[in-house]
Amino acid sequence: MKSFEVNFDGLVGPTHNYGGLSFGNVASQSNSQQASNPKEAALQGLEKMKALMDMGFVQGVLAPQERPDVAALRSLGFAGTDAQVIERAAKEAMPLLVASCSASSMWVANAATVSPSADTADGRVHFTAANLNCKYHRSIEHPTTSRVLGAMFADQEHFAHHAALPAVAQFGDEGAANHTRFCRDYGEAGVEFFVFGRSAFDSRYPAPQKYPARQTLEASQAVARLHGLSEEGVVFAQQNPAVIDQGVFHNDVIAVGNGELLFHHQDAFLNTEQMLAELQAKLATRGANFQSISVPRDQVAVEDAVRSYLFNSQLLSRADGSMLLIVPEECRANPRVWQYLQGLTAAGGPIREVKVFDLKQSMQNGGGPACLRLRVALNETELAAVNPGVIMTPALYDTLTVWVNKHYRDALRESDLADPQLLLECRTALDELTQILKLGAVYPFQIN
Ligand code: SUG
What we know:
There is one protein chain. By secondary structure, the protein is an alpha/beta fold. Helix content is 35%, strand content 17%. Helix 2 (38-54) runs antiparallel to helix 16, helix 4 crosses helix 5 (94-101) and helix 16 (394-407) packs antiparallel against helix 17 (420-436). It is globular. 54% of the residues are buried. N~2~-(3-carboxypropanoyl)-L-arginine binds at residues 18-22, 25, 28, 102, 104, 107, 109-110, 138, 177, 249-250, 252-253, 365-367, 371. Catalyzes the hydrolysis of N(2)-succinylarginine into N(2)-succinylornithine, ammonia and CO(2). The active site is at residues 174, 250, 371.
């Protein structure tokens, strides 16, 4: 049976703004308070989806969330009509209103961890919504994420959904941003690689000093247990705390893997040799020939990797077996990174081509091509069981482009977030979107 890696991209929501909400994420901090352009952000994302579809990849779309999140503000004590809730939050606690307006659900690499059916004990595709417990504005995503994933992957014969882990720092879970799956073929059993930033209960693991480590070992282990992964099918590895302190808040800012290949920075991990040997050995039992490409720090410094998002790229397998790397425009703008990429594709290794995309609106909040997509490996039967409304087609692309142009603003500043009209605009847009994507009622305003 044929199998595919389907990329589900997060559609950028109408309140995309630069709130400066993510301590430890250099771009989010340095672009705080700039005016954003939600329309451009959503169109840039759609362009990438269309380009992948046009290249023959199966592409899906994941809906944004209801923002401002009035229910979250109510749970913090703001009362009255929806307009009064927003007005009171704006007057008394602007940072909470900004957090409740974040369009951060666009970075769907953080929506969930996904294990394909070939790896799991019960032969179903497993999803665990990420609790995103490190940042308040992201911790409010998972209830709607679960409903949206449930509406996309509804067939219980093929899909199993787990609620987010307990909402405490010990189980901080950032989803697929710290998870990579290696395999010979998407439909065969592979090895799932979980990268954590710290341990909550074992002080032998060093922790970063300056910025938070968002993912714990204990969260990664819990996800592996929930998904019914076997010991031979998992590798846990620690991210280098020194790179977290340089702005590598998720492992997908410093490494990306696909098929039998791990592409990573020399300084990405602790105990790199041991970890590579474990991956190699476990993949060999799956008949896979694991390889890695380590980018030396004297060619690309960690700072260049963080600024350019070289590793927050999409590594895609093409029909001829070669790989394509989808990178953001910022890679071309960085002479060292661009020179490295020229050498990489000329070297005759597995990565043969680089394609560049303008994702500046998302990049300015620390979200590159890889952040914007959730990978779901599916066989033909499973793909046929996915809600067809969320699979990208030329017609869906056209409809979504018209929808964005109709509903989105082209400038948003912090002061605009207090406008009660923005809430109405968003709800009108999302109500229409759930019909376009055939999701049913998934948003709080549709179900309460
Ligand atoms: O969680 N930025 C996101 C970026 C997530 C990127 N995802 C991956 N690397 N997979 C975050 O830090 C910034 C929002 C703001 O400041 O307005 C933000 O949430």
